[in-house]
Amino acid sequence: MLSQIQGLHHVTSLASGAQRNNAFFTRTLGLRRVKKTVNFDRPDVYHLYYGDEIGTPGTVMTYFPFPNATRRTPGSGEVSTTAFSVPKGSLPFWEERLTGRTPSLREGRFGEARLRFDGPDRDDLTLVETEDDRTPWTESGIDADTAIRGFHSVELALPDIAPTSELLRFMGYEEAGTDGAVTRFSMPNGNGANFVDLLQSDAPEAGQGAGSVHHVAFAVADRAAQKEVQQALEGEGFQVTEQIDRDYFWAIYFRSPGGVLFEVATGEPGFDRDEERGALGEALKLPDQHAHLRERLDATLEPISD
Q: Pfam families annotated for this entry (predicted)?
């Protein structure tokens, strides 16, 4: 069993427009945009990162906004819900804040109060009331007693949860209970983004599009720990990529048994490697291999107003 994984690192999703996506996550949800860069494989598409003040692992929601992308078809074999942690007693504030902007629904799970709502592309998002001492970003105007702390969990909808359950146990997660069709796995002594919920689902296979989660990333401290995880996963028969430099972290990828793409990402070097902390997310940052495209990208990428 692995001991290097610390919880969630980031969740990366697809969107249909950069400006609308940016406005929702920074203005409505109050997260900080900590990086504005481009997709390594499609430099004509932004890669936008939202999180706490410095993009601490366990807080970062990221998006590839493909202009005019068709929307997802929800189903099985996908990350069906991304949940954020908010303070106890804060859901009435959020319910009022989201009124008129997106449909929302109060619900409960594992004794937690939850507010489920749609993102800009009908992304399936949830706020969960918890005791969470992580420091939120408050410069957006949302007070500390209501602001988002970071991730609470991801939910994976799967036709058979058993193989992914075994993988999570190997990754260091412990089964924490069952509520209806959902089985929860928890990371002991994790980074705050500690839960993975597995939903037993008989739905048809999901169709990826705007609003879909592209992959979910798990956190490790550094490249040495990541290498140990890579070798251990390969020993279990998983096909794992080499360690890839993503500028702000190093990444490895593999496909989980349920079909969801998993990443393991490092906490180093961080989002302040090429910007001062006070200016994170302001300038368009390009990977070295795409630096020669700056003039064209400045002219063709959708403008984002802050």
A: Glyoxalase
Region 236-265 average pLDDT: 98
Q: Report the distance separating Cα 67 and Cα 268, nearest Å.
A: 31
Model confidence pTM above 0.90: yes
Q: Where are the domains of the chain?
A: 8-67+76-300
Half-sphere exposure of 249 (CA within 13 A, CB side): 25
